[in-house]
């Protein structure tokens, strides 16, 4: 066998085993050869395409563009690389990066055009996910800084207005005037909570949850949130696993999906909420790359409404993106759901078709080894018992004043400090402090968690309640409240503050 023949056979082996498709055409655009990967992509055999042109295989506009590029490569005498979309034999559109290059004979004369194509569909999807994550991280950092100051302002307004409403309870006209303002503050607080949720900075209070029981408890709320011509069906698995999740945030996520489904069915329709156990193995094609193999609790919310255009599917979880008319949506509902699910180490997917409806599926890691014990709730006394002392650490003077007023009205003795060093000094001087109520973000070299740790080290019987609208990483671990940590989220009403303080002191 001649050396040339041997090299030709070796080249054929390389081409057939290449991870890229290879096509060779003559100067008239006729196909001379293709490798096996091209055959797989297009669902054809080599003998079916050899001698044919692009117009025999592709739509006219695609073929015209391919031929124009071939001519350019021949004229320029150098390779040209670009990216395009190509429909494979499976009916799916794939992203291809292709390099066309002139093919020359032994004398250097151009005799044809070669094309090497690489399928980068998965790579582009991974890049898109990375860009999305980076975008969410950047927005989250901005959001968190704003949320802290904004929640402090809301706390001042909510606390003082609730005190004013109590003092004016007999003046019905004055109370009526206050109610719209209180509703506006509640809406502002909800908006801030959603912003923290989609940026994955909302601290989660994780418990072992029976998702079926949670959904059954939500049925009246879901029904009230819908319109009469929407039929609701619950299909709950009888043997559903438990899952570790924040039940309050899960309820909000399900409600958001239900309301989203309602809005997609302006003429009425069917809403189906379903649960199931799902096990995804390492080789399971249904398992996205970022999902760890294992057992999951699946919750799906489906409608048969208008559906979502394919061009919008990649945007629906983006913050502030909405297809609703101006003034009818913030564009944060689905973003909040996405952020909560991701922060819970779960996964959410959406499948939709225009005119055929939409299905959202949430997967949460299952916990098959634990059972849920029943808990009996006790009625708490709101006010102080005897002469209980509360040490308040808050650097924002107006928040500090509001908190002190609420607690003093409940009968507590209140001590006020505005930085960590002063707080520890005051604690050392007052051995009978019952509760440390502290903000987390503080001026100076100590945050609320560090102050609390130092205080409890000296007084192991001291009870601690944190208050914050943006705790960052001080009291959370991977987005979840650390074990034993009690948090009062800003903004809060006077009654909510009183209830939480009493609850902490009684345990």
Short description:
By secondary structure, this protein is of the alpha/beta class. The chain is built from 15 helices and 19 strands.
Overview of the structural elements:
With 507 residues, the chain is α/β, with parallel strands linked by helices. It has three domains: 3-119, PAS domain (Beta-Lactamase, 2-Layer Sandwich), CATH 3.30.450.20; 126-206 and 375-507, Rossmann fold (3-Layer(aba) Sandwich); 211-367, 2-Layer Sandwich (Heat Shock Protein 90), CATH 3.30.565.10. Helix content is 42%, strand content 24%. The chain has 15 helices and 19 strands. The protein has helices spanning 3-16, 36-42, 46-49, 54-57, 60-76, 121-167, 172-198, 211-225, 247-263, 310-313, 333-343, 397-409, 420-429, 448-458, 494-505; strands spanning 21-26, 31-34, 80-87, 93-104, 110-119, 207-209, 230-235, 242-245, 269-280, 294-303, 347-353, 357-367, 389-393, 413-417, 433-439, 463-468, 476-477, 480-481, 487-489. Helix 6 crosses helix 12 (397-409), helix 9 runs antiparallel to helix 11 and helix 13 (420-429) runs parallel beside helix 14. It is elongated and about 105 Å long. Mean pLDDT is 84; it is low at 374-379.
Topology overview:
Elements: H1 3-16, E1 21-26, E2 31-34, H2 36-42, H3 46-49, H4 54-57, H5 60-76, E3 80-87, E4 93-104, E5 110-119, H6 121-167, H7 172-198, E6 207-209, H8 211-225, E7 230-235, E8 242-245, H9 247-263, E9 269-280, E10 294-303, H10 310-313, H11 333-343, E11 347-353, E12 357-367, E13 389-393, H12 397-409, E14 413-417, H13 420-429, E15 433-439, H14 448-458, E16 463-468, E17 476-477, E18 480-481, E19 487-489, H15 494-505
Parallel strand pairs: 7-9, 13-14, 13-15, 15-16, 16-19
Antiparallel strand pairs: 1-2, 1-5, 3-4, 4-5, 6-8, 8-12, 9-10, 10-12, 11-12, 17-18
Helix pairs in contact: 6-7, 6-12, 7-11, 8-9, 9-11, 13-14
